[in-house]
Amino acid sequence: MGKKIFSGVQPTGNLHLGNYLGAIKNFVDLNNDDDNKCIFCVVDLHAITIKQDPKELKNNIRETVATFIASGIDPKKSIIFNQSGVAAHAEGAWILSCVARMGWLNRMTQFKEKAGKDKEKASIGLYSYPVLMAADILLYDATHVPVGDDQKQHLELCRDIAQKFNNDFEVENFLQVPEPLIQKEFSRIMSLKDGSKKMSKSDLSDSSRINLTDDKDQIINKIKKAKTDSLPMPKNIKELDERLEAKNLLGIYSSLNNSTLENSVKNFAGKNFSQFKEKLADELVHKIEPISNEIKKLLEDKSHLDEILLDGVEKANSIASKKIERIKEIVGF
Ligand code: AMP
Ligand code: TRP
């Protein structure tokens, strides 16, 4: 049976290889299966949980849409829209924030990481961010949510919220409890500078990540400079437990090739890193350069991207507005 897919990406700039391999590549495969109904959301309400420059935010929203399309998502088959265009997201988040418990949110590790040492100065939105994410998903009765590994805990919270709502209001199965779709391998791509840190948009060092807008030379240079160790390439998978940078680069190579880590290790066992890096850069250029070129081309026609969003907002709104009306009735409004 077909799946109802919902996922979101924050328009916070610098979309990178981790976003692509952890999430967007999966979106494309799901979009290509005609049995599925897919909704991909540019989560601009989530973006402002951390301060954004309004002009940049607008550009980043368009760039996220361009990235979806350049990666292979077809806006005729899938709904692509921005969250702030559909009022039900904010309304739903409020109602669900009265269902979610403080104790549940206090366990969220992403908040702890993002808020850093000075929690008192973090926005309230950053804290309640996962409740808005639950509203996103539950408004569309999504059955499956493709995300990278870092969103696993937020999805568990979403499931808890759905179940508690259904129990509290005695509406069995009213909110669909969604399943996460997290790739078994390579669901967490690490920084090119530090194999223990996630590849991230906000890393101050641009050479820690491959941006999806990087050109051929940038990709080649970043891979050349990527951190490794001084040993030859690992001979077996077990060695990788202690060699995080080698593990990450081999993981990227395997994911791009749809191959297993084991096979990639075998292919390069005992060789020099430079030989492997050349092959890895080739693969990356082959995959990322066309996406990067297409993003740039799409960004030349802003009104086309805006039209796609408007059309998506209309379609999303027709689904979400019905669900939020039912939610309000159930709550007693
Ligand atoms: P974000 O940019 O935080 O909105 O993330 C968009 C999607 O990319 C989410 O599904 C994340 O789980 C995924 N993602 C972000 N960073 C990484 C990473 N380093 N490795 C794998 N997936 C990632
Ligand atoms: N929190 C997700 C992230 O940072 C983005 C997101 C918002 C999302 N709403 C969602 C992902 C709904 C999946 C489903 O990556």
Short description:
The protein has 333 residues and is mainly α. It is 54% helix and 7% strand.
Describe the structure.
- This protein is mainly α and 333 residues long.
- The protein has two domains: 4-187 and 302-331, HUPs (Rossmann fold, 3-Layer(aba) Sandwich), CATH 3.40.50.620; 206-297, Tyrosyl-Transfer RNA Synthetase (Orthogonal Bundle).
- 54% of the residues lie in helices and 7% in strands.
- The protein has helices spanning 17-32, 44-47, 54-71, 88-97, 102-106, 109-115, 124-138, 152-168, 216-225, 244-257, 261-268, 273-299, 302-331, and strands spanning 4-9, 37-42, 79-82, 144-146, 179-181.
- The chain starts with a strand and ends with a helix.
- Adenosine monophosphate binds at residues 9-10, 18-19, 22-23, 147-148, 150-151, 187-189, 198-199, 201.
* Each distinct ligand: adenosine monophosphate, tryptophan
The number of distinct β-strands equals 5
How many structural units, i.e. domains?
2
CATH class descriptor name of the largest domain = Alpha Beta
Overall geometry comes to globular
Features:
single chain, 333 residues, mainly alpha, Rossmann fold, Tyrosyl-Transfer RNA Synthetase, 2 domains, three-stranded parallel beta sheet, 5 strands, binds tryptophan
Mind sketching the topology for me?
Elements: E1 4-9, H1 17-32, E2 37-42, H2 44-47, H3 54-71, E3 79-82, H4 88-97, H5 102-106, H6 109-115, H7 124-138, E4 144-146, H8 152-168, E5 179-181, H9 216-225, H10 244-257, H11 261-268, H12 273-299, H13 302-331
Parallel strand pairs: 1-2, 2-3, 4-5
Helix pairs in contact: 3-12, 4-7, 4-13, 7-8, 9-12, 10-11, 10-12
The structure holds adenosine monophosphate and tryptophan.
Residues 6-8, 10, 43, 46, 133, 136-137, 145, 147, 151, 154 line the site of tryptophan (TRP).
